[in-house]
């Protein structure tokens, strides 16, 4: 994907939330297929992780566009308890080739990731700041393996 956004305006936001209803793999794939064309038009890239009702997503793009998307997600009835884990201006995209990569994480994979387990246990609290490192470690693991 061409990056028409200058480094000064390139924003990366990672949030975690709980889905209000569990989604099947088919429903998740359908949702991602709806998201991708819109993200391409908006110049947004990123990664969406889903595991048993827990959603974690990184969005990258023009700061105004990404902030607007996060505002929409925060009011989306499919999400509960949207918490921004990290918001930062970046020089380059981590997910530059993906309009939205997606990974449905199995419970076994979650169990094998101690950092994510600690993050998931603590994420029901209000302060995710201390767990941002674990969230980014998880994103990096799956960034290398996402479809």
TrEMBL record:
Name the InterPro entries on file. Acylphosphatase-like_dom_sf (IPR036046), BLUF_domain (IPR007024)
**PROSITE patterns, per the entry:** BLUF (PS50925)
> Which superkingdom does the taxonomy of this entry point to?
Bacteria
From what organism does this protein derive? Nocardioides oleivorans
Please report the stretch or stretches of sequence annotated as the BLUF domain: 10-101
The molecular function terms of the Gene Ontology recorded here are: blue light photoreceptor activity; FAD binding
Question: Mind telling me which SMART domains this protein's record contains?
Answer: BLUF (SM01034)
Name the chain's protein. BLUF domain-containing protein
């Amino acid at each position: 994907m061409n990056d028409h956004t200058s480094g000064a305006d390139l924003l990366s936001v990672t949030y975690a939330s709980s889905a209000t209803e569990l989604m099947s793999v088919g429903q998740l794939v359908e949702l991602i297929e709806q998201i991708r064309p819109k993200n391409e038009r908006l110049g947004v890239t990123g990664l969406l992780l889903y595991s048993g009702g827990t959603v974690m997503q990184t969005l990258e793009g023009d700061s105004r566009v990404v902030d607007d998307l996060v505002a929409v997600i925060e009011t989306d009835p499919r999400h509960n308890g949207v918490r921004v884990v990290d918001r930062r201006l970046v020089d380059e995209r981590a997910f530059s080739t993906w309009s939205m990569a997606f990974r449905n994480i199995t419970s076994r994979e979650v169990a094998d990731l101690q950092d994510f387990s600690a993050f998931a246990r603590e994420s029901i609290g209000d302060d995710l700041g201390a767990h941002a490192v674990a969230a980014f470690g998880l994103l990096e693991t799956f960034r290398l393996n996402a479809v």
